[in-house]
Amino acid sequence: MTRWLLALVLTASVTPAWALFEDNEARRAILELRSRMERQEIDVANRMRNLEATVDQVRAAMGGQLALQQEIERLRAEIARLRGQLEEQANELSKTQRAQRDQFANVDSRIKLVEPVQVQIDGENVMVERGEQRMFEAALNEFRGGDFEGAERAFEQFRLQFPESAYSPEAMFWLGSSQFALKKYKDSIATQAELVDSYPNSGRAADALLNKGFAEIELKQTKAARKSFELVQERYPGSSAAATAAKRAAAL
Fold this sequence. Notes:
Layout: H1 2-14, H2 17-114, E1 117-121, E2 124-128, H3 130-144, H4 148-161, H5 168-181, H6 185-198, H7 205-218, H8 222-235, H9 240-251
Helix pairs in contact: 3-4, 4-5, 5-6, 5-7, 6-7, 7-8, 7-9, 8-9
C-alpha cells in the first residue's frame, strides 16, 4: 500500500496537468471529426442515391423519348403507306370513272343512232329514225347542190330502204323534181302521179300535180297538161299551185 501510494505520487509529480487537458480535448476533437465524417458519409450516400435516382429517371425519360420517337417514325411510315394506297385507289377510281363515262357515252351515242327523233313534215311533228333522217337530208342536199343524178339515186335508194317513211311524199316529190331536171319527163310524170294517188292530202300533192303538168308540156302533151292544171284548181283551190295552174292553163 505504501509503495502504490508512492508510485502514484511519483506519477503525478511526473505528468503535468496541461497534458491531461490536451488529451481530453484531442479525444473530443477526434469524436467531433468522426461525427462530422459520419454525417458527411451519410450526406454523400444520400446524394449518391438521389443522383442515381435522377440518372434512372433521365434514362427512363430518354428511353421513353426514344420509344416515342420510334413510334412516331413508325406512324409516319404507316401514314405514307396509306397515302400511297389512297393515291393508287384514287387513280384506279378515276380510271374506272373515265372508262364508265366513255362506256356510257358510247352506249348513248349508239342509242342515239337508232333512237327516233321528232321532225316536222308538212307542218306536222312526226317521229323518224335518225338514220332515216340523215339519209333523206343527204339526198336533199345533193339536189340543192345541183347534183341531180346523185339526188335521183339517193331518193330512189331512200324509198327502197324506207318504204313506209313519213318522208315518202317529200322523197317522191324531190325524186320527180330530180328527174324533171334531168329531162326524164316520163319518169317525172310517173313519180309525181304516184305521189298524188298515194298521198292526195299531202302538202306536196298540189305541187306534184302542177309539176306533172309542166312535164307533160315538155312532152307536148297539151291535153294532159291542161287536165293536170284543172285538177290542181279543182282539188286544191286557194293554193299557190292552183293560182299558177290557172295561169298556165290559160296560156295553153
